[in-house]
Amino acid sequence: MNISVEELENYANLSPENKARFLELKDEEEQQKELEKQKKNSPFVDWLQVNNSNDAYKAEDWLMKKSAVAYRLLRFLVKEMDNYNAIVCSFKVLEEALGYKRTALSMAVALLKEHKYIDVKKTGTSNVYLVNKEIYWKSWGKNHQYAEFGAKIIISESEQDETLKKIEKKKIKSLDIPAKKK
């Protein structure tokens, strides 16, 4: 374990409970550094777990035969989902990303929901898509119980209000810090 001189001096002044917690945190920090190192050395940086059971394979195979639109939609959601199998986006995003009309995508979502490939929750005008963790999983197994929390959100520039776009541009310009005069 790598502990700096300053940390060692502070460690001496900690209570026994805080010393134990300090050591836990240092251990977690080292584990995280090791994971980051492994990521850099691995060709598998952005990985996905796929349940290779016969049932999951048959479900995916059936979907490919039943509806190419639904299969492409499912694979898009799987590719873009966060580590809790969730993604938030509007139909406009799906239309632009996949090149299908809203009606085709609505039918695909209904098919995916009906056969439990996904679940859909509402948040304002967008949907939260929750991919079935029994088929695909993007994180470590210990996160399974949190499959419906957290989300990656994708927005489309084309569905943003023009007024908001102008305001954002002004905000960015106002953040420019002038150079110091010498």
Write structural notes for this entry.
By secondary structure, this protein is an alpha+beta fold. The protein has 2 domains: 5-41, no CATH class; 49-164, Winged helix-like DNA-binding domain superfamily/Winged helix DNA-binding domain (Arc Repressor Mutant, subunit A). It has 7 helices and 6 strands. The chain has a 4-stranded mixed sheet with strand order 3-4-2-6. Strand 3 (118-123) and strand 4 (126-131) form a beta hairpin. Helix 4 crosses helix 6 (102-114).
Features:
182 residues, alpha+beta, Arc Repressor Mutant, subunit A, 2 domains, four-stranded mixed sheet
Sum this structure up briefly.
This protein has 182 residues and is α+β, with helices and mostly antiparallel strands.
Topology overview:
Blueprint (H helix, E strand, L loop, with lengths): L4 H8 L3 H26 L7 E2 L3 H13 L1 H13 L5 E4 L1 H8 L3 H13 L3 E6 L2 E6 L4 E2 L14 E2 L8 H13 L8
Parallel strand pairs: 2-6
Antiparallel strand pairs: 1-5, 2-4, 3-4
